[in-house]
Amino acid sequence: SPLFISCQEGHADCAALLQAAGCDIKASSYEGLSGQAYAQRSDHRRVLRLFSAWGTKEEMNDELRTAARQGRRGSVSRLLELGGDPAATGKSGGNALHLAVVTGDNVGVVEAILFGGAAAKGSGEQDAPQQLLESRTADNGMTPFSCACYYGRPKSVAAMLKAGAYTHFFSSQSFIHTRLRSPCSPGQAAM
Q1: Could you tell me if 71 and 189 are in contact, meaning their C-beta atoms sit under 8 angstroms apart?
Q2: CA-wise closest residue to 138 among 85, 101, 191
Q3: What is the mean pLDDT of each run of 10 residues along the chain (191 residues)?
């Protein structure tokens, strides 16, 4: 299979593209070997690092949220290419976009999530960003755009406006949370 050949020859970029396209990374060849076994047999460390990074979908999404929170644009882009879900939420109820905005004005990360996530998922460029912009945290109902405005993240606000954030949308629930307590608190983002 193309995956086995890529792994055996040490072509990590090709293996990553195949995995992102839905190739079964746990499949076995007629010899009974997996792509990981071919990479081990040929001692291709870059490919082996991919297999350890892929783990489960939940682990990948956890790593995506961590990379977003820490402002690591390259890691965010790579994880999106590998099939990470920018809309997946963690314990705080926030997704990668919420975390990128709450912890800093990381416009590169915000753009990677909004536009890289749409391209990685094969969605229309308008659909995926809009869904992410409208997503709300489970604990306080704030959107990433509301959080960016609340924390004064001008570069992130500009990127979200470019992606189609609603300038007139501010629900009464969000207003109540803004008045009563700090929404999207950094302590929540660390979860």
Answers
A1: no
A2: 191
A3: 89 85 86 84 77 72 86 84 85 87 90 73 53 74 87 92 75 43 45 38
Angle, CA 120 vertex, CA 116 and CA 122 arms, to 5°: 120
Classify residue 179 by burial, with Cβ atoms within 10 Å: 0-12, 13-18, 19+: exposed
Cα(108)–Cα(73) distance, integer angstroms: 6
Q: Select from 79, 54, 51, 53 the least CA-distant residue to 65.
A: 79
The overall pTM is greater than 0.85: no
- Per the CB < 8 A criterion, the answer to whether 63 and 69 are in contact is no
How many other C-beta atoms are found inside a 10 Å radius of the C-beta of residue 97? 29
How is residue 94 written in tokens? Answer: 């926030």
